[in-house]
Every structure is written in C-alpha cells, then in structure tokens.
Amino acid sequence: MLERLEGRAWETPLYADFPRAEFEGRVERMQALLAENGIDILVLWDEKNLRYFSGYHNNLFHAGSFQPAIVLIPADRDPVIIVPDFFCGVAEGYTYVDDIRLIVNPHVTANVRNIPVMVADVIKELGCGNGRIGIEAGSLGGMTIPRPLNDIDRFRDELSDAQFVEAGDLIWKLRCIKSSAEVEALKQATRASIDTYAELVGVFQPGMTEKDVGLLIRQSLLEKVQDCEPPLVTASSRRVPMYDVPAWDEGIPLNPGDRLILEPLPAHKGYYGSCCRIFNIGPLSDEVQERAEFVDRVQERAIAAVKPGVTTGRLWDVMNEGFQEWADEDYIFDQGGHSVGLCIHEPPMIAKGEELSVEEGMVLAIETWTIGEGDGRNMGAVFGVEDYVVVTSDGADVFPGYPKEQRVLGV
C-alpha cells in the first residue's frame, strides 16, 4: 500500500548535497533525452542513479530485504520518489522532489513482494502504463536493478502493455559530463588522499604492517571526508600478491627494500577521489628510480593526448607507444584508466580497442602500470601511478596530486 505525503516538512531539504538548480538541471536534461528518444518515463532503482537524479541516499541499500527508494522521471512532468514510510524524513531531508509516496509497513514480506505492483500502479497513474518505459540497462553496463528476479518479472508482468526500453546509455550520457559542483566534490575527495599521504610519510616506521598503514589511512580519510572504501594497501613482501584487495593481514611487516602500493578511495558527497602512488621502504635503487620515472613519463604522455574527440582506445595506444619507444616493450595492461564520479569506475574505459570518445566535462583517471619479469608472484617489479584530469575544450586540467618525486617511506 502506498500513501502520498501531503506537504513536506521542509520546502528546502536540510542536507542536500547540492543546490536545487543542480538536481533540477539533471532532471530537465534527462527529460529532454527521454522526449528525443520517444521514452515516456524512466524508472530508477540503482543506488547511484537515485542519488544522481534526486539526491536521495542512505546507508541501508545493502540490507536487501526492502527497497530503500525508487524514482520515476516522466518525460513531461515532475519526478516521483517512492520510499518506505520510515525513510520519509530521509527523502525530505535530501531531495527536492515534492511528490513523495510512502510504502506502508515496508518490512512485511507480503508488502515487500508487492512493491513491483505499487511502482507499476504509479506508472499507470502517470499515464505511462501503455507507453515506452526506460530501464537501467544498456551496452555500457554499470547499473543494476537490485531486486530479486521474481520482483523484476512481476514488475514487467504488471506492465504487459508497455514496451521496456534500454535507457542506461542515456543516463551515462548525462552522468559522464561533470558539473563544476561535481568536479569540486571529486577534487575535495582527492585532496584527502594527498593530505593523508603527507601524514603517512611523517609517521611511518619500518616494521609497521599493511594493517597498520591501512587503518592509519582509513582513519585519516574519515577525518577529512564523508566516507571511504577500505583502502588498497599492498606490500611487495606478500607471498601471493592480490592487487585490488585491501590488506588487513597483521603478519605482513613492511621492511627496508619492500614496496607499497597505495590507492585510497575517499568519497565526498558520494564522489570518489583517488591518487595512486607507490612508495619504497627505504632508499630507492637506481633501477627502481629509473623504472618509476619511466612510468610517470608514459602517464604524462597520455595526459597530453587527452582532448575532446579522441577515443579512449587511442589514449591506450598512446601509452603503448610510449612503452615501445622508451622501453621496447608492449603495454601489458588492457586498460589505462576510466571515467570517475559516483562510481569508482564509470564509462568510458581507457582500454585497448575502445571506440568511445572523450568529451569536455569528463573527469578521467589516467593510470599507467607495469610489471617486470617474474613468476607472477613477485610484487617487487610493480610500478604504477594514477591521477585525475578534467577534460577542457582543448585538452585537460590535471587535479592536484601527491608529489611523484617523493617515493620513499621510512627515511
């Protein structure tokens, strides 16, 4: 059962990430795309899309037993948000949406299973039950409808006279171009990583473990921004390296000669910053110094190639050409970066063979990695760097990053 909220507690939400114009602009641009593509209404279930278009968010999307929100964006009228009744205050506190529908008794299993019918009934009420309904699907992926399969099937069955249309690529068309407010949120999150590196350099001592460093980084980040993912902290002394798994193994001390890959992922207003760096424990050998500087040069070459119209596959080619020219070897990774925003990885990917074009306003992570010869378990030869850039009309502006020449801990 749905009840319509009669009158908001606050005309302007108290905790919105951005001003009203930011969200209204997103909805208006989406409505224009819907009309252009003959789509009558867009149905949003994905957590990131809900936050992008309405500002709504909370910390219970992982619960799974109920749906924290659904947003409907008709092509020709104001959006509707549907939330469990106990999240009414969350909707009022974070969103500018006026049409708020409340799911009564949202923990009762029968009511949870009936959510697809409730949503379908609102779509019919809005005059779109026989129309073209946009859903979060498309060639670029990266979105989900976080409901059990039987719920999705029932939703479709309730709208059997409608035509379901993939609208995911249209959503990415908007989300991949960042506003000035989004860029600032990304910069603030990235600055948290940079400041945290400076703190780590000041307190690090040989013998600290991966877990010590990981906890230090996480605590420091949470003092600076709203949230963060468990930070990637990977030591060369691991018996079996796991490149993208945060390490909490207390048995891996960091001693002179080891190398440490760090990639914190702080988030400000939901936007993920990053600045990946690799530190040597103790002085660098000439060989390590030379390889690290080589990787930096490849990244700089790729950044110089960023401009509107270039394909992301071409950016990967630039990296590969740098490796071949300076080291007479191929770039072994099939990707050299990606777009960023409310997700850590967003399309377009900077990857081998990609044909998607760079556009002004995108924020891209430009990352370059290399692994030397070994048996596949030797982390000592890993070198990498990652920085963000925002695409301008004729090139790219690089986000502030931690100084690359400061490569040592414990000295």
The CATH level-2 architecture of the largest domain is identified as Alpha-Beta Complex
Strand content: 15-25%
Class derived from helix and strand content: alpha+beta
SSE string = EHEHEEHEHHEHEHHHEEEEHHEEEEEE
Number of helical stretches of at least 4 residues: 11
CATH class of the largest domain: Alpha Beta
The CATH topology assignment of the largest domain is Creatine Amidinohydrolase
Oligomer: single chain
* Rg, Cα atoms, Å: 24 Å
Biggest sheet strand order reads: 1-5-4-3-2-6-7
What is the helix fraction of residues, given as a range? Answer: 25-40%
**Tell me, what's the shape?**
globular
Q: Note the gap between the termini.
A: 65 Å
Uncertain parts = none
- Strand segment tally: 17
Q: Looking at this structure, what is the CATH superfamily of the largest domain? A: Creatinase/methionine aminopeptidase superfamily
pLDDT averaged over residues: 92
Q: What kind of sheet is the major sheet?
A: 7 strands, mixed
List the helices and strands and how they pair.
Elements lengths: L1 E3 L15 H17 L4 E4 L2 H8 L15 E5 L5 E5 L3 H7 L4 E5 L5 H5 L1 H11 L6 E4 L13 H10 L4 E4 L1 H8 L4 H24 L6 H13 L4 E9 L23 E10 L2 E2 L4 E5 L4 H20 L6 H16 L7 E5 L6 E6 L11 E9 L10 E10 L4 E3 L9 E2 L2
Parallel strand pairs: 2-6, 4-5, 6-7, 11-17
Antiparallel strand pairs: 1-5, 2-3, 3-4, 8-9, 9-10, 9-11, 12-13, 12-14, 14-15, 15-16
